[in-house]
Amino acid sequence: MKYLSHYLKFIFLPVIVFYLLCLPCLNFGIDSIYISGLFLIILIIYYQFSSQQIDHYTFKTILIINILSYLLLPLCLIVSQGITLHPIWNIFILVNAPYCIFYFLSLFLHSYMFSIILILIINTVELILCYYIVKPKINKKKIVLTCICMILSLGIDFYFYKTSPSQKYKGHDFEYMNGFSSTDLSPFYPYTENNQLVKLPQKSSLIIEDEKDMPILDGAEACYPVYAAIANATYKDIAKIEKDYAKYNDADNGKIVTFYNSSTGYTRLFDGEVDMFFGAKPSQDQLEEAKKAGVELEYTPIGREAFVFFVNEKNVISNLKSKDIKSIYHGDITNWKSVGGKDCDIIAFQRPERSGSQAMMNYFMKDVTLKEPVTYEMQSAMEGIIQEVAEYYNEDGAIGYTFKYFLEGLHQEKNVKILSIDNVYPTVENIKNQKYPISTYLYCVTLKSNEKENVKKLKEFLLSPQGQYIIEQTGYCSLN
């Protein structure tokens, strides 16, 4: 009890001050936690020096707290599999109860692991300060051994965290476009200076002058560079329109050149919020949604694309038969040895159900059912711990699928190789002449009921030499 009373007395005032400091900082994001943490450490130093209440009891208490924290961290990471909302973390928070404010604040800022690391840093700084103030008589070998154990513990913690299912299977995360994109699409914004959008070598044959007459666009992640370039070529002053809108509507992903990906974009098309959607055909669920909404879809092929399968670049397999892929994803083939590879289990990754890639995969599989996908537990701010479809992780035995441009044009995966299918590699020539067995179209999807004149004109432009030039130069294959 004496140790505990010293510990509480030692940090009670700084923690109260920290609470007061944090309240006005809540609206300023995660950086405010860094600043507040530094303030806390400074206040602790000041309070200790001015009050002269630091003694060997305080030092021993903080030493015990540090040792317990560093021992608990790997245990919590192993049991929770990297999920920081797991109940096991309550033990860690209980040990560091005075600093639980960091953890509670992280619930609002979604920076759970950072709050845990910050607690460790403050504890360690306290220990170092107390050591230099109290100058306890401790064997130097014990100090060195303790430091080595702490460093090893941090190394083990980092390894367990990075290799936990919640981290390695979360994929690229949806960090951009307000949580709708896993890719930084800002180089393709119409208003980005020196953007990477394809430009026509001559004036566009179609120019839509009035903002209210511009069809509203949306699409799949991999299609944003295409339709943003189309708008950039045909919509007058679109860069200024979008830039002005972005200044005051940062929670929205564009005014006319919008982006809400395949999952949400199709719903917006059905609801009449957008005029044209660019991407793959909708999934079965989305078709059912369209039927319930009472709308009919019109598909306009505007380019060619390849649906590709890829593996780790060290995998000896470079070709698979279509029937073998179906057997792998049905669950009949589970080892690479069965298809001429090494003796290694196959980890067949899938995509979320409403994504364009998963819709295409379902078309490819036809009547062959897909096995249950690899899943992992993740933490959701709204729903707690939930099951999610695992994103591709480039480990031994992994195989995944996507569209070729998404893989090569947006550089989504590193150290992977695209497989030939039925001994045909997805070259531009093989995609155009459809020798590649899973060649598909890039579609502009509209509602049959949409009779806007400029929607019709824009579709005609997409099929014109200038429209096809933009599509081909972006990285897709033109229809010609």
Walk me through what this model shows.
- With 480 residues, the chain is of the alpha/beta class.
- The chain has helices spanning 2-22, 31-51, 56-80, 89-95, 100-109, 112-134, 140-162, 165-168, 224-234, 238-248, 261-270, 284-293, 322-330, 356-365, 404-408, 428-432, 453-463, 465-474, and strands at residues 217-219, 276-279, 297-312, 319-320, 347-348, 375-380, 384-389, 398-403, 416-418, 420-421, 439-447.
- The chain has 3 domains: 2-168, no CATH class; 177-303 and 443-474, 3-Layer(aba) Sandwich (D-Maltodextrin-Binding Protein, domain 2); 304-440, Periplasmic binding protein-like II (D-Maltodextrin-Binding Protein, domain 2, 3-Layer(aba) Sandwich).
- 47% of the residues lie in helices and 12% in strands.
- The strands form 3 sheets. Strands 1, 2, 3, 5, 8, 9 and 11 form a 7-stranded mixed β-sheet that branches.
- Helix 3 (56-80) runs antiparallel to helix 4 (89-95) and helix 9 runs antiparallel to helix 18 (465-474).
Please summarize what this structure is.
This protein is an alpha/beta fold.
Keywords:
two-stranded parallel sheet; D-Maltodextrin-Binding Protein, domain 2; alpha/beta; 12% strand; 18 helices; single chain; 480 residues; 7-stranded mixed sheet; 11 strands; 47% helix
Tell me the β content: 5-15%
Mean residue pLDDT: 81
- Low-confidence stretches are 377-386
- Helix percent reads 40-55%
Number of domains: 3
**DSSP summary: helix tally:** 18
Query: How would the global form be characterised?
Result: globular
Give the class from helix and strand content and strand pairing: alpha/beta
Termini distance?
Answer: 82 Å
How many strands? 11
Sketch the topology as an H/E string, one letter per element: HHHHHHHHEHHHEHEEHEHEEEHEEHEHH
Give a quick account of the main beta sheet: strands, pairing sense, barrel closure.
Answer: 7 strands, mixed
Task: Report Rg.
Answer: 28 Å
